[in-house]
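Subject: Sanity check before I submit

Could someone independently write out the structure tokens for this chain? I want to compare against mine line by line before I put it in a report. The sequence has 129 residues.
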Amino acid sequence: MRLLAPAIVFSAIAVGATAVAAAPGDFGGRWAVRMVTDSGVCEASYNYVIAVEEGGRVRYIPQDSDPAPSVSGSVGADGAVSLDIRKSIARVNATGRLKGASGSGSWRLPGLCTGRWTASKRGPVQAAR
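---
Independent answer below. Compare away.
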């Protein structure tokens, strides 16, 4: 059975966006995130958009008509990413680091699948609203 659970984790399709350079520690903005499944029964990959807002709070930006997951967690001033993403009964943990205008890390849906993610900064949060 293929699961869409990692789809609840942030990922992104940035339509017509160009990467924006960021000052060290300036992680606020829209991020295009690609998730790849390394093991388990989840789909091979997912693309989504997230916003890092004031104070490092993270928000999922829905694309088209996809239902939004519940996202909690943050990005620290040093770029450390720690997220808890929930959709229905699935709960994904994602960790990693942002540096400048890119980032990477890992995610896991306990008992079902694990993978890695990469991210690229695409612009200010306001452009995504």
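---
OP: Matches mine. For the report I'm noting this point. Residues 8 and 69 are 6 Å apart (CA to CA).
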